[in-house]
Amino acid sequence: MAIYYLLNGKDLLIFSISISLGWLLLSVYSGFYEVYRYTRPINILSLIVKQLILFLLLVFAFSGFFHELRIYPRPIIKYTLFCFLSIAILKFAIYYLLQKYRVSFGGNFRKTVVLGLNKKTQALESFFTKNPEYGYLHKKTFDFKNKQGTLDQCFQYILNEGIDEIYCSISELSNTQIADIVDFADNNLKILKFIPDSKEIYSKKLRYEYYDYIPVLTLRNIPLEDSVNTFIKRAFDILFSSVVIIFVLSWLTPIIAILIKLESKGPVFFKQSRNGFNYKEFDCYKFRSMTPNKDAHLYQATRGDERVTKVGRFLRKTSIDELPQFFNVLFGDMSVVGPRPHMVSHTNMYAKKIDKFMVRHFVKPGITGLAQTSGFRGEVETDKDIIGRVKYDIFYIENWSLLLDMKIIFQTFVNAVKGDEKAY
Q: Where is the Bacterial sugar transferase domain (predicted)?
């Protein structure tokens, strides 16, 4: 492709050596080849996009350094896009062909056992059984609490059956048992993995660092604490919010304002204090969807709420009432995607009664979020609703990527068109 698009018979050797070495260095940095049988397709796509951007910069740098080769921007972009289209097709073809091979022919399987019986190990066993495309053949789960076998019997079974991977529940085993299992796995070339107990520190996404020669564990790794990721997300927020403000709100706002004013007296915009990044309060803006009332800052809208106007019901159903928050995004108080901010009174209440609720304030709040596209938007009817919202928000915070943001934005648009049953 380089010969066809860029070089035209020029010095191929210099290009080949420079780009190949550069590709290898970029791949190590981006983890481009770290794709496993359990890797999700969205993660593969994320790796491809990351590598594409880095490689595009590399080729531009090469063209600038060897300017005598007269390699121009348009051919570089064509070359890079065609390369990555080919690579993406090949990468996904291998991924799905291997899955098909495992299901149809029973090949490329890994035999597994689980040590310890509880809800988490049962869920893992169910995952192995219901997803043969991932290539795991689960053989047995050992329950040590009910004395259904000893460790020695378990080790003998693993050797006799040719088990490849051992999964241990930390909560079901003593420290002595874990040490014995580690020794057995090391001495018999078995892959050993641990299933954390949700009540223990092991369940966190830990980051391992060294202070001089002292190992230190960080409880939570937040991608948006990285300055590059922060810059990327902020640049995306400014670009996206500017497009919405210029091309949508510029003409839609006067129409909405007229409709709101025709039905009820009061301001067009509704302003409410909410907690944002680092618990800092800010004014969150919406199109007014209720008749002015003294309880607006205390109580959420409920199903069949008499305070909601007819125009307001339509605005809430389609999520148009949230559009003024793009000004909050532009001003830097919010992000397009993130945990939804709560009223200050609700934040104080949930912080006292819901475990890990305050983790949501490690990043900027969003107009939409993973929790909202996963069925946890709108009114909090039971504790289960807010617990589910916090769970998805924490997952988003610990696993942020630009592709995940785009996926959430797309799903939000689809939900707005279809109509969400909790949008009232």
A: 233-417
3-state secondary structure of 217: strand
CB 120 within 8 A of CB 195: yes
Write the pLDDT tens digit of every residue in 172-214.
Answer: 888 888 889 988 888 888 888 888 765 544 445 566 666 556 6
Euclidean distance between CA atoms 93 and 319, whole angstroms? 39
User: Can you tell me the distance from the alpha carbon of 75 to that of 163, in angstroms, rounded to the nearest whole number?
Assistant: 52
- The torsion angles phi and psi of 397, rounded to 5 degrees, stand at -60, -40
The last residue of one of the domains, among 51, 77, 105, is 105
Contact status, residue 54 vs residue 22, Cβ threshold 8 Å = no
Beta bridge partners, 218, equal 207
**Reduced to 3 states, what is the DSSP secondary structure of residue 337?**
strand
The C-alpha atoms of residue 144 and residue 116 are separated, in whole angstroms, by: 6
d(CA 312, CA 260): 8
pTM score over 0.70: no
User: DSSP labels for 403-423?
Assistant: HHHHHHHHHHHHHHHH--TT-
Separation of alpha carbons 103 and 98, rounded Å: 9
